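Blinded run. Sample ID left blank on purpose so nobody reads anything into the name before looking at the predicted structure. Input follows.
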Amino acid sequence: MKIRLFCKSQLELSQAIKNLIDSYWENKIDETSLIEHVHKAIVINEDKAFKDGQYTKVLQ
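Blinded prediction complete.
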Protein backbone atom coordinates (compact mmCIF):
# COMPACT_ATOMS: atom_id res chain seq x y z
CA MET A 1 0.00 0.00 0.00
CA LYS A 2 1.34 3.40 -0.98
CA ILE A 3 1.04 6.04 1.73
CA ARG A 4 1.53 9.71 0.98
CA LEU A 5 3.22 11.50 3.86
CA PHE A 6 4.38 14.76 2.25
CA CYS A 7 1.37 16.93 1.43
CA LYS A 8 1.00 20.21 -0.43
CA SER A 9 -2.07 21.49 1.38
CA GLN A 10 -4.32 20.99 4.38
CA LEU A 11 -6.89 19.33 2.14
CA GLU A 12 -4.31 16.87 0.80
CA LEU A 13 -3.19 16.06 4.35
CA SER A 14 -6.77 15.45 5.47
CA GLN A 15 -7.35 13.17 2.47
CA ALA A 16 -4.18 11.21 3.24
CA ILE A 17 -5.31 10.68 6.84
CA LYS A 18 -8.79 9.69 5.66
CA ASN A 19 -7.23 7.14 3.30
CA LEU A 20 -5.22 5.69 6.17
CA ILE A 21 -8.33 5.36 8.31
CA ASP A 22 -10.23 3.75 5.42
CA SER A 23 -7.38 1.28 4.94
CA TYR A 24 -7.58 0.37 8.61
CA TRP A 25 -11.33 -0.24 8.43
CA GLU A 26 -10.81 -2.36 5.30
CA ASN A 27 -8.24 -4.44 7.24
CA LYS A 28 -5.43 -3.45 4.87
CA ILE A 29 -3.30 -2.13 7.74
CA ASP A 30 -3.29 -2.87 11.45
CA GLU A 31 -3.92 -0.40 14.28
CA THR A 32 -0.23 0.04 15.04
CA SER A 33 0.52 0.96 11.42
CA LEU A 34 -2.43 3.35 11.37
CA ILE A 35 -1.21 5.20 14.45
CA GLU A 36 2.39 5.26 13.22
CA HIS A 37 1.51 6.60 9.76
CA VAL A 38 -0.96 9.23 11.00
CA HIS A 39 1.65 10.42 13.50
CA LYS A 40 4.32 10.62 10.79
CA ALA A 41 1.98 12.50 8.45
CA ILE A 42 1.16 15.05 11.17
CA VAL A 43 4.81 15.52 12.19
CA ILE A 44 6.05 15.90 8.61
CA ASN A 45 3.23 18.34 7.74
CA GLU A 46 3.03 20.14 11.07
CA ASP A 47 2.70 23.53 9.37
CA LYS A 48 -0.44 22.30 7.59
CA ALA A 49 -1.87 20.41 10.57
CA PHE A 50 -1.76 23.13 13.23
CA LYS A 51 -2.61 26.80 13.49
CA ASP A 52 -2.20 28.66 16.77
CA GLY A 53 -1.53 25.38 18.58
CA GLN A 54 -4.75 23.69 17.44
CA TYR A 55 -5.65 21.40 14.57
CA THR A 56 -6.76 23.35 11.51
CA LYS A 57 -10.46 23.43 10.69
CA VAL A 58 -9.89 21.19 7.66
CA LEU A 59 -8.49 18.43 9.88
CA GLN A 60 -11.13 18.90 12.56
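Unblinding after everyone has recorded impressions. Residues 14 and 38 are 10 Å apart (CA to CA).
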